[in-house]
Amino acid sequence: MSKNKKSLNSLQLYKRLLTYTLPYKWVFVVAILGMIITAAVQPALAALMKPLLDAGFIEKDPETIRQLPPLIVGLFLISGIGQFTGQYAMGWIGRKIIFDIRNIIFSHIMSLPTAFHDNNASGILISKVIYDIEQIAHAATKALFVFVKDSLTIIGLVAWMLYLNWQLTLGIFLVTPFLALFVRFMSTRFRKTSRGVQKSMGGISNVTQEAIEGHKIVKSFGAQDFEAENFRVVNEKNRRQATRRVAVAAVSTPVPEILASIMIAAVLYYALRLSEQGQFSPGQFISYFSALGIMMNPAKRLTKVNEIIQQGLAAAESVFKVIDEPLENDDGSKVLKQVEGRVEYRNVCFTYPGHKELVLDDLSFSIKPGQTIALVGASGSGKSTVASLLPRFYNCDSGSILLDGIDIRELTLASLREQVSLVSQEIILFNDTITNNIAYGSTGAVDESRVLKASKAAHVDEFAQSLPDKYDTLVGEKGVRLSGGQRQRIAIARALYKNSPILVLDEATSALDAESEKYVQDAMLKLMKNKTTLIIAHRLSTIESANTILVLDKGRVIESGTHKALLEQSGTYAKLYKNNFAGLS
Asked: Which stretches within 448-555 are classed as H helix?
């Protein structure tokens, strides 16, 4: 987040927030008209009190008695129409703002660098999308509706009161500076407590998401009480923060009321003295105090609206912080049309953001079109990092990665990633049909024949046909309704459907049983045919046919060769291979 955005004050934040209402300015105009109508009726009702008392009750004027009842009904009818129009229009704008900002922040999050997702819990980001944006919309619409309508009402009432007795009305404004100071103080407190509530809501969302997604692990380790205690802690933080906000809100109401009561008492005393001197008729007196009484509710709402605005501004800070995060560096301009599939890592060095240790240290190797290169090594040797750099999930610190002789940083991200299919150990399936999971990411209509062809090659068809809805079967969240082997085969079918010239297999069979592995390995062989393939292997039996095997240690290649040649060297690979099979026996 840039420093200039970090230093935005309340006014700048609110101005930025209101820019989201600009596309709906004509609806906003309708809302303002409704507010003006509603606001205009209030002083009119107060003004009616004068003829009601003077001409109606005291003088008993029959014309006044006949006209006032339908006039009062008409005013309330006009007020109701204005209230409905203004409130509905602002509510409509509010939902549109929520819709727009949610779309913006979701699209933005999807385009942020992988490093951002590494450093930000998904539950907290979800809380921003769901909870914080609701608070923003309230500040931009609900608060604005109350502010405009009630401010106009107060202006109209004050104008009428000035007309009745300007000296008396000016005395009311003696209280205004004290109210302004109090509101300013409360604004700071509201913003601070609202930030705390939003942060604690992110904690609740994060703990809940992790526990629900990992419910099997929680149960298998008997950790229900542990997770319940974790939730209790974050829930207690939320309760404390919310209670502080309630306390601030509770204080914000009686203090202005006490100040208002002092003002009313002073005005009442002065008005009664004027009445004694014959300068204030009973009708003027009642009309004046009716206007003052009507003004109390709008004034009270205006002090409360500050709470909504400060909640919204705290939420806006949180949301805009994400929106202002720089997107993935996509400054490449070249677009690949015909790809041979020649890949070269040239003196690549890489360190993960926030860490000091080199993960890859001057790494160099190349893969010819159609060749298969396998990477092996102990955990932490840099194998998966090599795979992450090829589609530019991260950018190398120095050195370069070339595709058909072109530095991948010169390519647009879309063009580069179109050439690469990734199948990893962690299979992500979406809660959709098998067909849509296989055709995931493709533009236009799904090619059913391609889906079937990919499914048969990946051995998906064998189990899909036995399901009640066949290819229209919903796989559940993360594919929970399928076995690990079935999920892996769908992932391979997805890569087959994409049909990219470059394939990255990141420990794609490490978690499978022997029978599932047999199916998956056969599917992988079909997938790898005529493709440039980079395999990160856990089970070394899966890479015996690779053209070249590279053994990594601390980000460097320490051995390379064919499976047979490396075994004959009796070096690191031979030891890994021996231990690998010893672990399987």
From this structure: 448-457, 461-464, 484-498, 514-528
Strand partners, 115: none
Q: Tokens 């179109």, residue?
A: 418
User: Strands across the sheet with 360-367, in order?
Assistant: 360-367, 343-350, 398-403, 406-407
Mean pLDDT, the chain, integer? 79
Residue 279 to residue 266: CA distance in whole angstroms: 17
CA distances from 434 to 185, 420, 513 (A): 57, 22, 22
Query: In this predicted structure, what is the pLDDT of residue 495?
Result: 83
The structure tokens listed for 192 are 């601070």
Q: Which has the closest alpha carbon to 281: 49, 54, 52?
A: 54
Residue in the structure block whose two tokens are 């003002």:
263
Q: If phi over 0 gives left and psi between -120 and 50 gives alpha, with beta otherwise, what is residue 529? A: beta
In residues, how long is the chain? 585
**Is the distance from CB of 253 to CB of 303 less than 8 angstroms?**
yes
Q: Which residue has the tokens 């009161």?
A: 161
Q: How far apart are CA 189 and CA 199, in angstroms?
A: 16
- Whole-angstrom Cα distance, residue 36 to residue 153? 8
Look-up of token digits 């309330």: 76
- The single residue listed with the structure tokens 């998956």 is 520
Give kind and range of the element (H or E) at residue 263: helix 254-276
User: What pLDDT score was predicted for residue 4?
Assistant: 39
pLDDT single digits (tens) 309-332: 777 888 888 888 888 888 888 888
Cβ–Cβ < 8 Å for 359, 350: yes
Instruction: Give residue 6's pLDDT band: very low, low, confident or very high (50, 70, 90).
Output: very low
- The residue behind tokens 């007795």 is 165
DSSP character at residue 545: T
Quote the tokens at residue 549: 């095997």
407: its two tokens: 């530095």
Question: In whole angstroms, what is the distance from residue 533 CA to residue 491 CA?
Answer: 16
CA distance 560 to 366: 12
Token code pair at residue 272: 């009664």
- Indicate the pLDDT class of residue 209, thresholds 50, 70 and 90: low
CB 53 within 8 A of CB 289: no
Residues near 512 by beta carbon (within 8 Å), at least 6 away in sequence: 484, 485, 488, 520
Instruction: For residue range 501-531, list pLDDT tens digits in order.
Output: 888 888 766 555 566 666 667 666 776 777 8
Q: What are phi and psi of 162, to 5 degrees?
A: -65, -40
Q: What is the pTM of this model?
A: 0.75
CA 188 – CA 139 distance, rounded (Å): 16
Type of residue found at 413: L
Residue with token string 């309760």: 239
Residue 559 has pLDDT above 50, yes or no: yes
In order of 384, 527, 549, the CA distances from 370 in angstroms are 21, 12, 15
CA 200 – CA 244 distance, rounded (Å):
13
CA atoms of 560 and 547, how far apart (whole Å): 10
Place of tokens 């409509």: 92
Q: Who's near 84: CB < 8 A, 6+ residues apart?
A: 34
Q: Yes or no: say if 506 and 423 are a contact pair by the CB < 8 Å rule.
A: yes
pLDDT above 80 (res 425): no
Note the pLDDT of residue 301: 77
